[in-house]
């Protein structure tokens, strides 16, 4: 079994090299799919949709996606109930959940609607979420993004930002322009790496402004009114919008610099108007939207990325993957959904199975297969595709287990690389060797100063068998690390683990855990006001947005961003563009809502005109 796996190729079975069962079923289902879904209209403006799709893809790449507790499916289900009540056909409406701790929501002119993790973590009711999504959908359907000159200009600039025509104050920091005779956006292979870096940074700054800039009072009022009408037409309580405002007023500070208030101004007047409108609107029985969602899926799949102006092949490929993901969200059932799932699974399978047998991460691969199986089982419990996925899972699991003796022998021999340990833990989480492998990996990470990863592996071994000798070794390893530990999220994880362990501990063991907890708490208290690396603070706020030290960490993050901004000015002044760009990148990536990031965005916009 071990040698027969060989190197998987696209469309081949991981077991014997024949076409996989997934592909055979896919071919049959596509041959039978002869009907054309409703809503396959042409786009109003291919150019604008392409620019907007590129911006959305950059947003998800830059900020990351989030799907805790099937958040995306909930957002999409409610969003499409609302969208299905519109007569909007200019662009396909799509929905995304972005991993940002600030509660917010925004939309791009091409129909891409974003909700942040921070917003969903406010525990919105369905009516409140409908009010939020209705508002953002209305900004799209009412064409607010293109009617505001500032936003239209930003979107146009964004489409050129990756090219040398738009750079971060290029003249003042010694940046490179396009070679003589090379038109803007043409011959991308001739563009220097330095210019590409500057263009990418400019795109990041412009995108931030595009997503975070508020609308006028008139447009906010229009979106509120139309959004409530859509909510009522879709079967939701139109007062959900007013309830959302009440919740946010109670939970969030009303400052202009804080996410939602900055991007959705005129709060007080809007609350009163929303409550008055809501009392006059009747909640209706929603119309079926299955055909509408199929139509959105088809339009996304039909879009030709060659229409995107000035995009290179890598950018087009990234947008194509982005649109395929959006198409699966739009309608996650049926032949096309199965094809999209199959394509994604096969890409991952080919990537993983091309390596040496004992280094193949079957755990990751099986995890994705099982995730897809669970989604299909919930959405289409009668689908034949379930049996196909089950057989693929069984085959991959058998191959993984066939590799176990060889992996165990390598572990016992003690001659291995870090990658092997990572794969072993992923593939065999229930093996007797799990804790010893986790401790070995923790030690390996500590040697190369990967302290957060080291802590996570020690915690895995401790949780697996807290009272065992290996569990105690893990706890002692953590005790040795804490006094010099600078990673804030690692300290937060230790505290979290100690709180959990104390619930089931007594006597001397409880005292040892309390000692570790006290040491971690003291160290975190010190480092929250002392850390220098922006990535350190940003990661803590992402993992522990409601942590006891979140406010102090956020304040320190702004301070450090301000310090880096001063270095940007310094290095620009002496013409050291690489060092200036390094500081700019760190600020934008790890402190995007800091005052320093805001000033960088403003400077980028000035430089782009």
Short description:
The chain is mainly alpha-helical.
Form type: globular
Report the C-alpha radius of gyration, rounded. 26 Å
Structural class: mainly alpha
> How many separate structural domains?
3
Q: Numbering strands along the chain, what is their spatial order in the largest sheet?
A: 1-3-2
Mean pLDDT: 80
Assign a percent range to the helix content.
Answer: 55-70%
Task: Give the total of beta strands.
Answer: 3
Q: Biggest β-sheet: count, sense, barrel?
A: 3 strands, mixed
End-to-end distance:
62 Å
How many helical stretches? 29
Share of β-strand residues: under 5%
Low-pLDDT stretches are: 1-40, 159-200, 605-609
Q: Could you explain how this protein is built, in words?
A:
- By secondary structure, the protein is mainly α.
- It has 3 domains: about 1-35 and about 330-400; about 45-280, no CATH class; about 405-525, Serine Threonine Protein Phosphatase 5, Tetratricopeptide repeat.
- The chain is built from 29 helices and 3 strands.
- The chain has helices spanning about 1-5, 20-30, 45-65, 70-85, 115-120, 125-140, 145, 150-160, 195-210, 215-235, 240-250, 260-265, 265-280, 290-300, 315-330, 335-355, 360-380, 385-400, 405-415, 420-425, 435-445, 450-465, 470-480, 490-500, 505-525, 535-545, 550-575, 575-590, 595-605; strands spanning about 95-100, 105, 110-115.
- A 3-stranded mixed beta sheet has the order 1-3-2, sandwiched between helices.
- β2 (about 105) and β3 (about 110-115) form a beta hairpin.
- The longest helix has 24 residues, at about 550-575.
- It is globular.
